[in-house]
Amino acid sequence: MSGHAPQTTFAKISRFSFLVYCAAVFLFLMAPIVAIIPLSLNGGSFLTYPLDGLSLRWYEELFTTARWVTAMRNSLIVALPATAIAMVIGTLAAIGLTVANFRGKAFVSAILISPMVVPLIITAVGVYLFFAPLGLANSFLGLILVHAALGAPFVLVTVSATLAGFDMTLARAASSLGAPSHIVFLRVVLPLILPGLVSGALFAFATSLDEVVVVLFLGGPAQRTLPREIFDGIREHITPAITAVATLLILVATALMVTIEALRRRGEKLSSRAK
Amino acid sequence: MKAPDRHRLRHQTRRQERVRALRALVLVLPMFAFLALSFLVPIGRMLYRSIEDPELASALPQTAQLLKQWDGVDLPPDNVFAALLREMPTAFEKRTLAAVAQRLNHDISGYRSLLLRTARKLNKREPSATPLDAAQAFFDIDPRWRQPRYWAAMRRAAGPVTDFYLLAALDLDRDAAGDIVPVPEHEAVFVDVLLRTIWIGGVVMALCLVTGYPIAYLLATASPRLGNILMILVLLPFWTSLLVRTSAWVVVLQNEGILNGLFLRFGLVDAPVQMIFNRFGVFVAMTHVLLPFMVLPLYSVMKGISPSYMRAASSLGAPPWLAFLRVYLPQSMPGVAAGCLLVFILAVGYYITPALVGGAGDQMVSYFIAFYTSRTVNWGLASALAAVLLLTTVALYFVYGRLSRTGGGVRLG
Fold first, then answer.
1. Which residue among B30, B257, B352 places its CB closest to the CB of A47?
2. Candidates A32, A101, A249; nearest CB to B288
3. What is the count of structural domains for chain A?
4. Which ipTM score applies to this complex?
């Protein structure tokens, strides 16, 4: 932006204040997240600076008390199967929506995406009232079903995006050479859509790992997940143990972000080369 | 190509297309069926709950039937009293009367105890002592039975469907004559809640716009290297768990939190400043949570605006602010619209963040949906509020879909 016009003092000042403003917004975005990380290493039990010496006691509490260990285990018990289901049904639907036109396709797509759109509280209450008489409340199965429904649209969207840049003649070429359709899928289609599939799966996994509204309604005392424990922790009394969980989850978020960005860049490079 | 050949070819292509469409449907079916079971049908069932009125009709079928035949003026005819007198003891013993009492209590508070007390007294009565007429039996137990409004409420609950909950969600009710009237002022809460929800959503949207627009501009115009680094500062919060970000704000803003600690240490204040469990905390935390949803669509639109337009404007003598206002801003409007809509839609449906950092007066409609589902069990009202929220969300998303087709939608992945 700078450099193509003679810089007046006014322009310099306004450019400078613009940058200061932007820096303040970036600080607002990052500061709270960064600020809680050192608190998890606090030797004392207050959540303020300066730290009362460094220690790993809160991490120790995390990995030794039943409450947090169970919560981590429960989160995985729900997130892993939910992600697996979301991957299968989302990928199949993405292929189905890409390979053919049929009447009402736009409507069907809108319906399949709708779990991303509907406010979580509506999903949670609706499912709770419906599942409770069926014996699916207070069960892992109920949570897995709903989390899979919430995650599947992400897989659908990301796989559809990869398929949009995918040359369907490749699959046709394979089948004209005599490959049965499951071989075409495994050897031609799957490797090409894999980046989209992995991104979608990570979105679905992250959604389940972070979801608490449905868990609040549908989960019983035996299904207390990590977000549920954090929710109660904030409500009752926030301790440094929560900042330790938060730090671990920030690491998870960083890993997810790096992976997704790498996949996205790779996809962009591939599609620009194809052009 | 000869005519029969062309005909055959067309026939073949069409058949192939049909086979392909069928295969596509088979591939879509598993996800559709899955969502139907674990998402669509439950929500549809809940929406139906907002107009369904089954309690009275199933517990006291004859009474319900006769109530519907009554014109609603003054007191019901004797056959209604008689039917109720006959059916009430059975319903009381089968415990279905409790649900009716609950339903009627939603309409007139105090109705529950009136109905159950009446049933208990009727049960204790000697069966032989029934020479007096049915209406008199009710009047003897409680004089409130002489008031037409109790009977009008019962008539409204006769089912099978009702607009009672939907009206209640908008602070409306029907009077004894069946006309729609506003509920008494001290009972009106939901219009306030809906307006508050829209207000909080609007303020958060505006805050996201004034903070998000400049950084989206910086991201879109910076060198690719710097742009990538700055993008991380937007994406990391986006990927970080909502609960982590909310708890981070509690740690930062609470009375014994980081900010108040700094303020006290540097003598800026004498006592901790209340920055959380109030509206301020809600605005700060929600803006933080939703800011990436503003920045990402803005960025994707701004990335497509060629810098040559701005250069052309300034070479024609426009000062930078004018060039921005007249050239850049209009071109970025699709991003502004998409970002604002997305943030607003997400904000009005939020539950967790306001529940954790807001005070009692900062709760939005989603809080009341949860409240009427689990604390005060009034599923009809919870469903009606959910229907209002869902309708708003879907309508706004429709607009969003229109806008993002012309550019500016968020692409995931």
1. B257
2. A32
3. 1
4. 0.88
